[in-house]
Every structure is written in C-alpha cells, then in structure tokens.
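agent> Task received from the user: take the single chain below, predict its 3D structure, and emit structure tokens. No templates, no multimer pairing.
agent> Plan: (1) validate residues, (2) run structure prediction, (3) serialize to tokens, (4) report one or two observations.
agent> Step 1 OK, no nonstandard residues flagged.
tool_call: predict_structure(input=
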Amino acid sequence: MPCLQKLSLRGSQQIFTGKEVGTANRLSELKLSGYCVDTDSFNRFLTRSSLKRISLLECTCCSAEVPLKSDSIRDLILDPMFQKRLPLFPSLEKLYLKGMDDTDFHYILLKICEYYPKLERLTLHVGPGQIGSMRPTPDSTNVTATNSFSLLNKLDKLKDLHLNRIDLTGIDWTICEGSNVNYIHLKGCSIDGTGAEKIVRTFKHLRTFYFDYCYLRQPRADLFDIDKSSADGLHWLARYCKISYHDIHIEELPELRFPNILFL
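)
tool_result: status=success, residues=264
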C-alpha cells in the first residue's frame, strides 16, 4: 500500500475524509466516485500527500463553503461540479469541469482565470440532453460581464480549449485577441459562421479547429466549407490551421418568399 501510485474508489455517498487511503504516501492519482467529500478533513490529507491528479465523479460535499485546497494538484476532473466554489489549486494545469444547463459559466470562467494562472488545458462540458450558455448579457456595459471569453487573455499558458454542448452563438471572439490558444475542439456546440470566422481571425496561434456533432448556424453558414471548395471559407481564412468536421448539421438559409404580384 505505501508504494501505491494510482487508486480508484467507488462509494455510495459515504463520507470520504482521506483517511481511507491509509499509508499510501506515494499516491499521485486518486479517483473517487459517489462519495460525500468532507472538505475539511480531505484538505488536511492533501497537505501531506503527493497527489497530482484528482477525479471526483458524481461526488457531493459535506460543506459548501469550504473549498478544496492544494499546491500540488496539476490535473482535476469535476464531473459534475459539486460546489459553487472551485477548488483552490494554484498549480493546476488541466481542468475538466462538467456543469448543467443552468450552470453559470460566466462566473466559472471568471474564477478559473483568478484561481488557475498556470492552466494549459480547459474543458467545459454539459451533459447529454442539456445545452449550456455563454451568451453575452445585453444589459451590461462591462466587457467581462457581457463576454466572459474576454478573460482567456489572462490565461497566457492556455493552449487547449474544449467546449462540449454549449451554445456559442452571439459570442464576440475578437476580444480574445492576444490569446495563445492553438487548439479548439467544439463538441455538440451551436455556433454561427460569423463567430467561427472571428475565431480563426482572432486566435493567431490556432493550428487545430475541430467541429464534432455541432450545429453550424446562420449567419454565414457558408463559411463552413466542408469540401474546401469555397474561396472565402474557413479553410481559406485559416490556411495554416487544420479544420475538421464530424457528423455536423449546417443550418440552411430560409427560402425567400415573394408576395403574389399581378402582372398586367
């Protein structure tokens, strides 16, 4: 047990304190499923552990006000997010966070930028049958409040951005000018052609852009040049970027209807 490096435990809402791990002081990866985490006790365990990766799947917590804390965690999976407060892991490099359709992703992204300055890979995910939203708030003049993606510029180490089942229509990506993101993977997202154009024009380091199971919408859905035949499509606009489509749906222009005209 002392030499154990990876451990996966499954519970049924039992309280987890960290004592269950025992003397596994070389443990680097811990996966918990279905536990109620006692954050106070677990934090004491984290201070003396060498954990680098934590996966919390279908877990709850005993205290909604006490966040998890650790200076050693590099990789975190929250599936789903079970506290309003994100863990305080200042050395975090990879984050997978699953929310619901009513999750406040504006607030979450704000806290991600505040808590995780070393973040290199970010995945925001909404479960099947639900669609998350990050649309701008029209009644605010604050750029951060209206478009939380403006905060990506603060994450200067962020390279990989994965967004799953989130409505991205209406997002002004031009405020991300200066971001170092070079890989964007959209899965099950809704995005319009104008927004996609702004992405490839704004993210100067972008080298990979994937659309999987996405709903590609108007306006300018013609920019999604699946066959690469368009002279002004995404492939032409981002000639140094690999653009890939898989099982997507493209919104068609509505048919034009003309009133009946009587010719004399």
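agent> Step 4: summary for the user.
The helical segments are 39-48, 105-115, 143-146, 193-202, 234-237.
agent> Done.
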